[in-house]
Amino acid sequence: xxxxxxxxVIGSGFAGLFATRxxxxxxxxxxxxxxxxxxxxxxxLYQVATGILSEGDVAPAIRDVLRRQDNARVLxxxxxxxxxxxxxxxxxxxxxxxxxxxxxxxxATGAAQSYFGHDExxxxxxxxxxxxxxxxxxGRIFGAFEMAELETDPGRREAWLTxxxxxxxxTGVEMAxxxxxxxxxxxxxxxxxxxxxxxxxxxxxxAPRILPAFDERLSKRVADHLRGMGVEIHTGAxxxxxxxDSVEIQHQSGDxxxxxxxxxxxxxxxxxxxxxxxxxxxxxxxxxxxxxxKVLPDCTLPGHPEVFVVGDLMSLNxxxxxxxxxxxxxxxxxxxxxxxxxxxxxxxxxxxxxxxxDLGTLAAISRYYAVGQRGRAQVWGLLGWLxxxxxxxxxxxxxxxRLLALVSWIVTFFGRTRYERTITLRQVTARRALEGSDGQTxxxxxxxxQARNSTTxxxxxxLRLAA
Length: 467
Hints:
Layout: E1 5-10, H1 14-22, E2 28-34, H2 45-49, H3 55-58, H4 62-65, E3 72-76, E4 78-83, E5 88-93, E6 96-101, E7 104-107, E8 111-113, H5 131-150, H6 154-160, E9 162-166, H7 170-186, E10 200-205, H8 216-228, E11 231-235, E12 237-242, E13 246-251, E14 256-260, E15 263-266, E16 270-272, H9 275-283, E17 293-294, E18 300-301, E19 304-309, E20 314-315, H10 323-341, E21 361-366, E22 369-374, E23 377-380, H11 381-395, H12 399-415, H13 425-429, H14 461-466
Parallel strand pairs: 1-2, 1-7, 2-3, 7-19, 9-10, 9-15, 10-11, 17-20
Antiparallel strand pairs: 4-5, 5-6, 8-16, 12-13, 13-14, 18-19, 21-22, 22-23
């Protein structure tokens, strides 16, 4: 008996999930492979990091999302090999390896944080691309206020109350706005020995202005709004060194300065998944500087019409790394597969081009203030914020997550408090658990639970006091 058409989807982000769901009623057997057990709504990670939402609000279990889709199964594992001749995908989880055959492959593994050749910065300045990252950043932000409360030395206290955000794109400005609201409103009066409103929030970027993807007028509005909240904006400022206690900045003049800060968050730059390099080695496909795979107009690999590369991993027509691009490219891949199976489309990559529809870009800066643009149309202030709320509620996966997010927003924005402030020492120090006695790391991320028996934490003095 002939088997159903086998579709393997690598990655359960926006592109992978929407492609899978689009194939719900198609005559296919789908295998979704991901190294996590959840679908992550990445645009709201900064709200997990700043205590507005819980991790469960933005990361429903992928098995729950697909529980009613009978033609889909989920495998936990990290793909490390793709055999394009045999049409197999091999993944591993711990000591187990699994090989799955496919007729059509959708690669939607997204992107990670890029440190522009300085991966050693990650130890001191975590990015914001995963639940692990968000929980660590939350621990560092709220932990900084706790450490400042304990600190008796004025200089060290000031360092604990200084927050440096490297990168002034949407995530950077959103984080800056939320930390400013935390210090000026939500945590005000909660401490005995410190004045949280004295916290410094530094927004650093080498570009000449913040939000470079937005219109210059919107960028100026956001800059003025952030400065009114107490955020210090430093453009034309490139971070050239990061350590436990400070960041070193190179200014446009060539001069360098060092700022004492215990809490750094890296929101600048992305690097495509390593599977891009694997596909390029096996097919000769070109890669961009950030590791994206250059695909044909229908989002397939040159010479391999059965392999789709979608989402942040694909490079096509200079499309931005937005959730909407990932969603539309995933839906496009599924639509092409359905047409091929119905006999409406030959396997000629030039016959079905991906056409992206720009639905606009939004960034929420603070309570009641967001900006957005679509083409020449621009919104800002309260109207932008209401549109931002509506759009993000629509795109959150599942009624339960929408309801929980809405309740959390009501509590936060109208009650001016943050209930998701639970942190643990292990969240802050798990990254350091990877280090040996020589202070070097093996470059891998270890789950927090593996930090329990480690004796090699490089824990700051104030954190040791709190422990």
